[in-house]
Amino acid sequence: MLNRLLPIAALLALAVFSWSGSDYYTGLAIKIMIYGIFALSLQLLVGGAGLVSLGHAAFFGIGAYVAALLSPESEAAGLWWLLPAALLAAAAYALATGALALRTRGVYFIMVTLAFSQMAYYVFHDTKIGGGSDGIYLYFRPELSLGGWLPFDLGDARTFYFFVLACLALTWGFLALLRRSPFGAALAGIRINEQRMRAAGYSTYPYKLAAYVIGATLASLAGFLFALKDGFVTPELLAWEQSGLVLLMVILGGMGSLGGAVLGTVALVLMQELFQSQEIFGEYARHWHLPLGVAIIALVALLPNGLAGLPAQLRQRRAAHVAAPSLDADTARAAPKPDAAHSSRQQAPARLPIQGEPHV
């Protein structure tokens, strides 16, 4: 019951936070929510199907570039067609690359996904499709116009905040339902023992490909929102560093739960902001990668199950601490008591024989 209430409480807290009045903290919350969607999309692969990908940033960047490239410079595009276009473009690329990458396993799958991601990166970096290495601007956020009527205006900062929050809630709800479905159960079986699933009659390849495409589509949603947030898209969104960053979020939070992906996102983004703060670290803030790396290593070493597994880890330690004294007492009570005569013989002090007594 508590696991169901915590996500609802977190969403309500984020909704209230929009009235904080600070543009900086509101923008930071939007960034965390967008990366939370990105981390949830990868959690489906890593925690759901056991597929560790280092090319997930390609779909994030494709969603962002489609939003920027298809938006006119003079007016706002229609949200009703721009968002599906971004999702379909990433899904198509995932279907084409996943059909080949999923023929491999283990480290080979990691390297193939990285190669496909770098291919997409250099397409935008070395050509004029998206402005080359300089990137491209998005001048107007899209509008949802229904016969001239606008239900909401994404140009308004608070409206955009709630739009991103709604996307995060829908992504969470969709993945939660997916985990409880027969499809999610099949993915869990594939993660635990793919050979046994095949022996049981399951064709694992279509399940993994479907999960790969779904994860890519959700990642493109995060990229689409990121483009709308900043109004600027660069090829660095497709770089392997972005893939490594989102993978760190999933590992840091815990790969076994949806909440872990979001917790890892919150922790990593806040640590980045902390170590980059010149008000706290002064000139040393230029070297923020060093303390960030040390903090990540410490957290991963101390929390092998991630931040989401911290309560269970504390309960196990407390239970072990309570059980240790009782176990010692039970062992002492169960020990056999020595015989009285034997004990007296053992406790009798040794003496030298008197003259005339035989030596024993």
Automatic annotation (TrEMBL):
Key words of the record: Cell membrane, Membrane, Transmembrane, Transmembrane helix
Keyword Ligase assigned: no
Electron transport in keyword set: no
InterPro entries in UniProt: ABC_transp_permease (IPR001851), LivM-like (IPR043428)
Subcellular location: Cell membrane
Membrane topology: Multi-pass membrane protein
Entry superkingdom: Bacteria
Entry's Gene Ontology molecular function annotations: branched-chain amino acid transmembrane transporter activity
Gene Ontology terms: cellular component: plasma membrane
Region named Disordered: 327-360
Transmembrane segments: 28-46, 53-72, 78-100, 107-124, 159-178, 205-226, 246-270, 290-310
Annotated protein name in UniProt: Branched-chain amino acid ABC transporter permease
Organism: Achromobacter aegrifaciens
